[in-house]
Amino acid sequence: MSEERKSLNFIEQIIEEDLANGMKTNDLRFRFPPEPNGYLHIGHTKAIGISFGLGEKYNAPVNLRFDDTNPAKEEQEYVDAIKKDIAWLGYSWDKELYSSDYFQQLFDWAVMLIKQGKAYVDSQSSDAMAEQKGTPTQPGVDGPYRNRSVAENLDLFMRMKNGEFEEGAHILRAKIDMQHPNMLMRDPIMYRIIKKHHHRTADTWCIYPMYDWTHGESDYIESISHSLCSLEFKPHRELYDWFLDQVVQAGNIRPKQREFARLNLSYTIMSKRKLLQLVEDRIVTGWDDPRMPTISGLRRRGYTPAAIRKFVETVGVAKRDNVIDVSLLEFCIREDLNKSAPRVMAVLDPVKLVITNYPEDKEEWLEAENNQEDESAGFREVPFSKYLYIERDDFKEQANSKYFRLTLGKEVRLKNAYIIKGESVVKDASGTIMEIHCTYDEASLSGSGTEASLRKVKGTLHWVSIKHALKAEVREYDRLFMDEAPDGHQDKDFMEFLNPESLKIVEAYVEPSLATVKVGERFQFQRIGYFNVDDDFTPNHLVFNKTVGLRDSWAKQEPTNQAPNNQKQSNQTERKAIDIIQQLGKKYTNLPEAKQIKVKAEIQKLAEGVTYEELAPLFNTAAKKTGTRIAVMITLGVLLKQGLEKNSDIEAFIENALADSNSLLVAEAQNI
């Protein structure tokens, strides 16, 4: 088997085998068949990516077919939203089709089956049918209406179609085998009566085909070569094939159903019914609430099509269900926005900083880099004055050696500006700090090239000039659920796991360059995270959504509040964070990508407890120990985001990494 062959996923292997056995490439056709009863969510992106991805790979058409067979739950709003989401992801479909396009053909085929003695009208109650159908371990029994005559079945079915009966009075069932080991083959329902207005066919029909009857026959009508479904449809394949056996004619393309594992995401629910409950109960503002796992919600939150497609590609195509950590999705958007999002300064929890020796009436416009990851991004100017806002948690009156930000008696640099030194504070009656007074070194302007400007300090802070700052509403979104599997508890309702801190709205101050933003534009608020302009924005009211923080704040920590059950566990909890980081780094390069994401998040969390003095000796790690060097680079990135100022040793370490042959190490170096 060639290397190219090995790289194929199992669905691609099936297609390649079919082509090798005589199928023509021109006969390949795929479809994505959503039901328009809700908005698409992140779980659907896998099915979308597989079908449309195969279309791109083999230059084959992909149909978008709406499974609109239940008018009680389906709406045109959902059709429009689904089309918008798929197009936004960057995919194009060949034909826009609907199962309702085939209602007459499906009805005619059903009549044919009745005439052949392969379908009958059942008039039992739903409870009676359930009882006579048996269980997975107990065969079913024939119902009292199973042997109705063809004439009686035709008469009843036509009267069902003509609206003579109420909902639930009769159904049409396929006549297969009530003792079949697969319960789906025990005379499955083909039609039921639903007297509801249909969004496309209006009131033409009052009987509607079931999914199992519609699915395969629609595939056949459209000449679909490979009908790809999620894993829960595997038991349905036998019925899919039985229905096709009744209608397929020689010489026509016969669809082949194959199944893949669906995409399950931690801290998320994928049930459209439960997502609808969140909307109807007003837990969220709508289907496009940025906390929702819907594609429209992710788009409004600031996710990009590239990040979502990269996520689906990284997850891959599997045959077994598994749960993907949501941190992988967050990693993908961080990686994408790190390359593309302009850097700006914003203060979300402001405290006033007064530079006492800066002239009262002076202001300067200082040069700031838009994105160090993009050489073409250029520079902008930001205003500087005597009175600034900084983040409240960027100052402590007293701090230990791990604190790189502003404190009394120590120096830090203001990003793109001067070195300042904390001198005193002004407090209100309750002891809350209202002002921080400091002095600045006029010769220390960043980038001026003077000796004073080149001297190094450990911390760098972002800031905005009070006089020039713009007010903005910032919506800090977090995960909607606090439990990894909110709908995975039999004894608890998923609503019990709602995160009360999933949305915080703060009044922030941003630099004036953001006065001309447009809806959907994305930015990195330096040292905070990635944000985008919300749909509610107006020129007089800036509104930003938090897309994701600069690092995973939900990374799992080593348990420290439980008594160890053996000495090995006890010794591990006593180990220094830097030692654990080194150990995690040793095997980093041998891990699969999804596992690397988890380990990286763990390293980032541990890095919060590492000092620069502990990390610096590891800059001299041997070149062949690539994994350790990657772990050191990840740790360094956290310290720099905490405010650590770069020095010559740090810059040399980064420069050496950028020249390395390992792409993972180079990527981490580029990130900082």
Describe the protein's architecture and organization.
The chain is of the alpha/beta class and about 675 residues long. The protein is about 30% helix and about 20% strand. The strands form 8 sheets. It has a 7-stranded mixed beta sheet. Strands 23-20-21-22-14-17-24 form a 7-stranded mixed beta sheet, with no helix packed on it. Helix 4 links the parallel strand 2 (about 60-65) and strand 3 (about 95-100). The protein is elongated. The two termini are about 40 Å apart.
Helix content: 25-40%
Kindly report the spatial arrangement of strands forming the biggest sheet: 12-27-28-29-25-26-13
Uncertain segments are: 1-6, 557-573
Annotation field: number of helices: 21
What oligomeric state is this? single chain
Query: Alpha-carbon distance between the termini?
Result: 41 Å
Cα radius of gyration in angstroms:
31 Å
Provide the β-strand percentage band. Answer: 15-25%
SSE class = alpha/beta
Q: How can the largest sheet be summarized? A: 7 strands, mixed
Shape: elongated
What average pLDDT do the residues reach? 91
What is shown here, in short?
This protein is of the alpha/beta class and 672 residues long. It is built from 21 helices and 29 strands.
Task: Reconstruct the topology from this structure.
Blueprint: H1 3-6, H2 10-20, E1 30-32, H3 44-58, E2 62-66, H4 76-88, E3 96-98, H5 103-115, E4 119-122, H6 126-132, H7 150-161, E5 171-174, E6 189-193, E7 207-209, H8 211-221, E8 226-230, H9 237-247, E9 256-260, E10 263-265, H10 272-280, H11 295-301, H12 305-315, E11 322-324, H13 326-340, E12 343-344, E13 346-347, E14 350-355, E15 364-369, E16 379-384, E17 387-391, E18 395-396, E19 406-407, E20 411-414, E21 419-427, E22 433-440, H14 451-454, E23 460-461, E24 464-465, E25 470-477, E26 503-510, E27 522-525, E28 529-533, E29 542-549, H15 567-574, H16 577-586, H17 593-607, H18 612-615, H19 626-641, H20 648-658, H21 663-671
Parallel strand pairs: 1-2, 2-3, 8-9, 10-11, 12-27, 14-22, 18-19, 20-23, 25-29
Antiparallel strand pairs: 4-5, 5-6, 6-7, 13-26, 14-17, 15-16, 17-24, 20-21, 21-22, 25-26, 27-28, 28-29
Helix pairs in contact: 8-9, 12-13, 16-17, 16-19, 17-19, 19-21, 20-21
Region (Disordered): 125-145
Domain tRNA synthetases class I (E and Q) anti-codon binding: 460-534
InterPro entries: aa-tRNA-synth_I_CS, Gln-tRNA-synth, Gln/Glu-tRNA_Ligase, Glu/Gln-tRNA-synth_Ib_cat-dom, Glu/Gln-tRNA-synth_Ib_codon-bd, Glu_tRNA_lig_a-bdl, Rbsml_bL25/Gln-tRNA_synth_N, Ribosomal_bL25/Gln-tRNA_synth
